Amino acid sequence: MAITVLLEIKVKPESVAEARELMGRELQTTRAFSGNLTTDVIVDEDDPGHWVIYERWESVEHDEAYRTFRAGEGKIEGLPALLAAPPVKTRYLDTDV
Question: What digits encode the pLDDT tens for the residues 26-80?
């Protein structure tokens, strides 16, 4: 069953341009990762450092494999220094409602 993940990040105001460049490169890897159906970034119109990364995965297992990759060999080393707060990840399951 497909799932949706929302990753909310807050980028320091002075780091938005650098974060856009870094994430532009890194999200290519995310989009190519096995099981990724789509990955989009939406930005708060009143706060260019407030982003939500919208991801659709084929399954929980695909999402878990991706998170394991990002925690290990695929870690985005430069990202923590650009953030104003830790990222917040929420996973949503599809329903028949």
Answer: 999 999 999 999 999 999 999 999 999 999 999 999 999 999 999 999 999 999 9
What kind and span of H or E run contains 27? helix 16-32
Query: pTM for the whole thing?
Result: 0.92
Q: Which of 32, 37, 33, 26 is nearest to 75 (CA)?
A: 26
Distance CA 15, CA 85 (A): 13
- Give me 19's structure tokens: 């974060």
Select from 38, 40, 51, 41 the least CA-distant residue to 83.
Answer: 51
Instruction: Find the radius of gyration of the CA atoms of the chain.
Output: 14
Domains annotated on the chain, with CATH: 3-93 (3.30.70.100)
